[in-house]
């Protein structure tokens, strides 16, 4: 009997450490697929430079965590560049939730990712990647500067550390559990 | 020309997808799990080399995304070949768990416990 499969997205701006995080917790080296870009994907963003426009494929990284005999969790690192966001919609379908990874030195590169999940009401946690393990700002300060509601967990992490990344995923699951437990059943 | 499709199959150009660009079924997501049917159905047509490669890779259950990565082919191409295999009865496909709205507590608790062990 094939196992059940669920997925979590690891999102955030360009080069914030998404693939690194996937690799840190995955039981296999991150796998990669290259998708040819469709014409539809090319007009998504008109802010691109010429060089970027020439790219013809978009890469997708993912890893796997076997939860049990009958349940496997897949982690998908979403493509960082904004022009690839047409893929995010597809990726988001059926996801348990998302981790928005932030590079502490340039948090603005992940603003759009936060917007993406907020708008679609996809549950997410924010994980602040300290790069070089340094965390100059406490989580509360980051939450405030990002104007995040209190129900969105903010964690300081090191994308290179397995335990740190696992804690981020656990925080996401806890958030999801809290959502289920405290949501009044939809009767009206 | 009647029977064009059948004839087309016989003289199919040596391309992986037979010139098609779109899967005939939408039931393959990145995390749909596919498994080779073992033993294969008796009347199954002889698979092409790329199809045989897929069948070998999914002797045990494997996700579509993993297959694509191992084959070093775009997911979109792999899905088209999976459609062929599914139609030929050579694989089974298990769609990912769908949550109408919210996932259930049991599942979440299971994921949480599993993460706790890594
Ligand atoms: N020092 C340090 N380097 C890191 C950390 N996280 C990632 N890096 C490095 O930063 C670079 C980018 O990391 P990736 O994991 O590839 O980032 P990404 O978000 O997947 O990038 P894109 O997919 O291109 O958007 C790589 O060279 C990583 O080795 C970290 O916590 N500390
Ligand atoms: Mg990456």
TrEMBL record, chain B:
Coiled coil: none
InterPro entries assigned to the protein according to its UniProt record, in alphabetical order: DUF742, WH_DNA-bd_sf
PANTHER family in the record: DUF742 DOMAIN-CONTAINING PROTEIN
Pfam short name (any one): DUF742
Top-level taxon of origin: Bacteria
Name of this chain's protein: DUF742 domain-containing protein
């Amino acid at each position: 009997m094939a196992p059940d499969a669920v997925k979590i997205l690891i999102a955030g701006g360009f080069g914030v450490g998404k693939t690194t995080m996937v690799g840190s917790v995955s039981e296999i080296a991150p796998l990669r697929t290259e998708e040819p870009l469709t014409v539809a994907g090319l007009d998504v963003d008109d802010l691109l430079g010429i060089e970027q426009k020439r790219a013809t494929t978009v890469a997708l990284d993912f890893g796997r965590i076997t939860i049990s005999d009958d349940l496997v969790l897949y982690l998908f690192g979403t493509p960082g560049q904004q022009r690839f966001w047409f893929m995010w919609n597809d990726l988001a379908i059926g996801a348990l939730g998302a981790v928005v990874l932030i590079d502490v030195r340039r948090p603005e590169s992940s603003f759009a990712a936060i917007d993406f999940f907020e708008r679609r009401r996809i549950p997410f946690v924010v994980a602040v990647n300290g790069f070089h393990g340094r965390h100059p700002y406490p989580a509360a300060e980051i939450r405030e500067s990002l104007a995040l509601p209190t129900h969105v967990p903010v964690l300081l992490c090191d994308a290179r550390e397995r335990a740190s990344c696992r804690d981020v995923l656990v925080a996401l699951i806890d958030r999801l559990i809290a959502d289920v437990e405290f949501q009044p059943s939809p009767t009206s | 020309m009647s029977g064009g499709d059948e004839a087309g199959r016989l003289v199919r150009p040596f391309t992986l997808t037979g010139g098609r660009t779109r899967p005939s079924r939408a039931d393959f997501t990145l995390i749909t799990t596919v498994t080779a049917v073992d033993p294969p159905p008796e009347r199954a047509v002889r698979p092409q080399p790329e199809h045989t490669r897929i069948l070998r890779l999914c002797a045990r259950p494997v996700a579509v995304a993993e297959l694509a990565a191992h084959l070093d082919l775009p997911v979109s191409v792999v899905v088209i070949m999976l459609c062929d295999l599914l139609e030929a009865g050579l694989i089974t496909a298990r769609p990912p768990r769908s949550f109408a709205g919210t996932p259930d507590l049991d599942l979440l608790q299971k994921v949480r416990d599993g993460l706790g062990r890594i």
